[in-house]
Structures are given as structure tokens and as C-alpha cells.
């Protein structure tokens, strides 16, 4: 009976393990972002070094849209996930021209990668 309960618990947790964030996979997800974003300097888009935890529209020496400056957002995991799914829906008037990433696993991996870039 004990083995049956442990087996059921293990089986229930398997989907959670499969959803674990993978920073190495996130680096691959980030590849298209390199066209506009870098770590340690602004490009077409703002510097993303340390972005998770930063207040949106505040990185120095980058000319953000008024919409981003006034969004009131802070880039925590939940906010970034909503934004990267559909940037123009989350911040109407953003300058970011990107359709978004719909795959939650890819977004989780991307966040894990961004968190390594402090």
C-alpha cells in the first residue's frame, strides 16, 4: 500500500518536474532577442542585464516609450510572463515590435536565463 501511495505521488509530481526552468534552453529562446537586446549595454532595445526585479522603463540612457515609462510595472516573473506572451497587449504603446512567445515552457526557460544575467 505504501509503495502504491508513493508511486501515485511521484506520478503526480512528474508534470511539475517537466516544467522546471532550464537556463540553457532559455539561452536558445533568447537568441532572436539578441537582434535588439544585450547584457551590459543598450541597443535597439534596453540593456537586459538584471532586468528581473527592475522597474519597467527605468534603465538609464535608454529612450523608453511614454507607455513603458508610465506602465507602473516591475519585471517579476509573473509580469514578464504576461508581457512576453503579448507585449503590445500588456503595454499598449510600447515600442517593442515583437509578436510574443506563447509557449509557457519557453517563457519559463527564458526567465531562468535572464535571471543568470545579473
Give a structural overview.
- The protein is an all-alpha fold.
- The chain has one domain: Cytochrome c-like domain (Cytochrome Bc1 Complex, Chain D, domain 2, Orthogonal Bundle), CATH 1.10.760.
- The chain is about 45% helix and about 0% strand.
- Helix 2 (about 25-30) crosses helix 6 (about 105-115).
- The longest helix has 17 residues, at about 1-20.
- The chain is globular and about 35 Å long.
Biggest sheet: strands, sense, closure?
A: none
Portion of residues in helices?
40-55%
Which descriptor suits the 3D outline? globular
The first-level CATH class name: Mainly Alpha
Structural class: mainly alpha
| β-strand number | 0
Report the sheet-strand fraction.
under 5%
H-E order:
HHHHHH
What tags apply to this protein structure?
single chain, 118 residues, Cytochrome Bc1 Complex, Chain D, domain 2, 46% helix, Cyt_c-like_dom
What's the structural blueprint in terms of helices and strands?
Elements: H1 2-18, H2 23-30, H3 66-69, H4 77-85, H5 87-90, H6 104-115
Helix pairs in contact: 2-6, 4-6
Short structural description:
The protein has 118 residues and is an all-alpha fold. It has six helices and no strands. The radius of gyration is 17 Å and the shape is globular.
Amino acid at each position: 500500500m505504501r509503495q502504491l501511495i508513493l508511486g501515485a505521488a511521484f506520478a503526480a509530481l512528474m508534470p511539475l518536474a517537466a516544467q522546471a526552468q532550464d537556463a540553457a534552453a532559455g539561452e536558445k529562446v533568447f537568441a532572436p532577442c539578441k537582434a535588439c537586446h544585450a547584457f551590459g549595454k543598450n541597443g535597439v532595445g534596453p540593456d537586459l542585464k538584471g532586468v528581473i526585479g527592475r522597474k519597467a522603463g527605468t534603465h538609464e540612457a535608454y529612450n523608453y516609450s511614454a507607455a513603458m515609462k508610465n506602465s507602473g510595472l516591475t519585471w517579476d516573473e509573473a509580469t514578464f510572463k504576461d508581457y512576453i506572451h503579448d507585449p503590445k497587449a500588456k503595454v499598449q504603446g510600447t515600442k517593442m515590435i515583437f509578436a510574443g512567445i506563447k509557449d509557457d515552457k519557453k517563457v519559463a526557460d527564458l526567465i531562468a536565463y535572464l535571471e543568470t544575467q545579473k
